[in-house]
C-alpha cells in the first residue's frame, strides 16, 4: 500500500523555491500568509491549473475563503501578482495568474541592495 | 552588475518542497507561520548551518525572536522537529535540527488518508 | 535586456531530481544518455507537453532523431517508461508518456538494497 | 521497512536543475556525459562534499575513473568548471569545485541568443 503512496508522491513532484526569495520575502514587503498564498498559486500554475478560486486556495490554508480573496486583492493591488487574459488552441479566452510582478520585485530588490551596500562601503572608506 | 547578481542567485540555489507537503501541511496540524519556520530550518540545514538561532530564523520572518523561540518550542513538543547530538570529524559534539519527525507525520497521514478513503468507499458501496 | 532574460528564466522554473535517483541510475541499469532522455521527458511532462516526438527530444540532445527513437523503444521495452491512453475534457483521446515504471524500479531497488545489506550484515556477524 | 527507505529518500532531498540549462546544454557545447558529470559535482557540492575524487564521481556513472578524470580536465580547460582554494574556520586550506563558469556561459548564451533573434528579426523586416 505504502509503495503506491510513494509513487503517487513522486508523480506529484516538488515545487522549487529560490532560496534568495525564501530569505528575502519580508524585505519585499510580504508576510508569511501572503508568501505561502503565492507559493500555492505557483504550485497550481505548475500543475496546469491557471486560475484557482479563492475557495480552492483557502482549502489548503488556515484562512477563510473571504480572507483569501481579500489577500489576493491586496497582492494584485500592491503588484505582486497579476491576472492576464489568454487564448487557448480553440480560441477560447481564459484568465490566468502570473507571478511575473513578484520576480520583477525580487530582481529590483537585488539591484537596490547592491547599490545600498556600495554606498555604505564608500561612506565607511571615507570616514 | 545584474549579471553578478544572477550568478549569485544561481549559486544560492533552490529549496525543493514536496507538493504533497505544501498541499497538506494544514492537515498535519501546521499553520502558515509554523510551516514557513520549518522551511527556513530546512533551508539552513541544506546550506550546512545545522543549528540556527531563533534570532537568525526570526530575522527572515515577520515574527519577533521570542515568538520564534516559542514556535520552535511548540514544534519540538508536538513532534514536528527534533534536536539531535552529533559528533564532527574532530570529535567535537554539536547539536542539529532534524526534520525527520515531519516526514514521519507526513507518511503517517498519507497512509491514514488511504485507509479513511477505503472505509468511506466501502460504506458507500454498502448503502 | 538581461532583466527580461532573468524573468523568463525564473518563469521556466526548475526540474527537481531526487538525489537518490541521480546517485543510482546506473544501478537501475541506465546509462547517461538514457537517463538524460528520461529527464527531458520528465521536463516536457511538467510543462504540459505529454507526448513529445523523438525529433523534439533529439533536438535537445547530441543524438540523432533515429537514435532517439531507438532509445525510447529500448526504454519502453525494458520497462522504464510507458505510454498511456488518456481522454481530455472534450473526450478526445491522446497519448502521454508516464515515468511511473521508473519510480517503481527505483523503489524496488531501494528495498532490495536494504535486503542485501541485511544479509551481508548477518553473514559478517556469523563469521 | 519501506517507510524508513522513504524517510531516508526525503532526507537526501532533490537537486534542482534550471529547465533552461536542461534544454540548452548542447548549445553551450556540452554532451550528455559532460552535463551529467557537472550535475554530479553540483550534487556533491550541495551535500557539503566540495572536492569529490574522479573515482567517487565515476562510481555513480557508466564511465571509468580515468575517463572521468579526462572529462574533468576537459571541462576545466574549456571553462565550464573551476577549482578554487578556500580556507576553513581553522585556517586549513582546502580545494573546492565551483560551477560559476557554467552559470556565466549560460547567461552569456542567453544574451547572445536574444541578440541573434533581434538581428534575424530586423533582417526579416528589411526583406
TrEMBL record, chains A, B, C, D:
Parent-protein start and end of this portion: 1 to 127 of 235
Family named by the database record: Belongs to the DnaB/DnaD family.
Name under which the protein is recorded: DNA replication protein DnaD
Domain DnaD N-terminal as annotated: residue spans: 17-115
Amino acid at each position: 500500500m505504502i509503495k503506491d503512496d510513494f509513487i503517487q508522491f513522486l508523480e506529484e513532484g516538488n515545487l522549487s523555491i529560490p532560496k534568495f526569495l525564501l530569505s528575502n520575502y519580508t524585505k519585499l514587503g510580504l508576510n508569511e500568509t501572503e508568501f505561502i498564498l503565492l507559493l500555492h498559486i505557483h504550485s497550481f500554475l505548475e500543475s496546469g491549473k491557471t486560475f484557482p478560486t479563492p475557495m480552492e486556495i483557502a482549502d489548503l490554508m488556515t484562512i477563510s475563503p473571504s480572507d483569501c480573496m481579500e489577500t489576493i486583492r491586496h497582492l494584485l493591488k500592491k503588484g505582486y501578482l497579476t491576472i492576464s487574459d489568454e487564448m487557448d488552441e480553440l480560441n477560447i479566452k481564459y484568465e490566468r495568474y502570473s507571478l511575473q510582478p513578484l520576480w520583477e520585485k525580487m530582481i529590483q530588490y537585488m539591484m537596490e541592495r547592491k547599490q545600498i551596500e556600495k554606498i555604505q562601503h564608500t561612506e565607511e572608506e571615507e570616514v
